[in-house]
Design a protein that fits this description.
By secondary structure, this protein is an alpha/beta fold. It is about 35% helix and about 35% strand.
């Protein structure tokens, strides 16, 4: 499923780029279309994007961002097993991942061209923990949040602008 708008406990929404439900778990995928060099650690609140000209920009840790997405999924479907969820942060080919430190076994920070290789590996090597019936149930619970109207999308965008700029 793509572009899922899930409600958060504070009444706002969180947008998930992609969710894939498989016998091996629920894959929550955050896509980042950045350029430059990317530096970050799972433990840091912010990561850094650096350009050759020396410009640097900070951005919110995408692992933390995806944790929020996973938390929203857990609230909707009522399944809390941490090993059920796989967090994929997928960066575009336009950037170089420099120093990325990750400790969690369920988190991957990769480039787009590596995505299929890692996904295949996880799908074939990880233990099957969901039945086809459970997959269908989870899909049914989440599907309603993928077909949102323009007003919901606009409200989410405005909420993000307010969060970033305070207006």
């Amino acid at each position: 499923m793509a572009n899922i708008y899930l409600p958060k406990q504070d009444g706002s929404t969180t947008e998930i780029d992609l969710i894939m439900i498989s016998e091996t778990g629920i894959y929550v995928i955050e896509s980042k279309n950045y350029s430059g060099w990317i530096f970050g650690s799972e433990k840091d609140r912010n990561w850094t994007q650096t350009f050759r000209n020396g410009q640097k920009f900070r951005f919110y840790n995408p692992i933390w961002q995806n944790r929020g997405h996973i938390s929203a999924v857990k609230n909707i479907i009522g399944m809390d097993d941490e090993f059920l969820y796989r967090s994929y942060i997928v960066f575009s080919e336009r950037c170089t991942l420099k120093k990325i430190n990750i400790d969690s076994p369920t988190v991957r920070v990769i480039k787009r061209e590596e995505f299929m290789e890692y996904m295949r590996r996880d799908l074939y090597e990880l233990r099957k923990i969901l039945s086809i019936g459970e997959i269908n149930d989870i899909y049914q619970q989440l599907q309603q949040y993928s077909l949102v109207d323009d007003a919901t999308k606009e409200a989410h965008i405005n909420q993000m602008k307010f969060k970033k700029y305070g207006r």
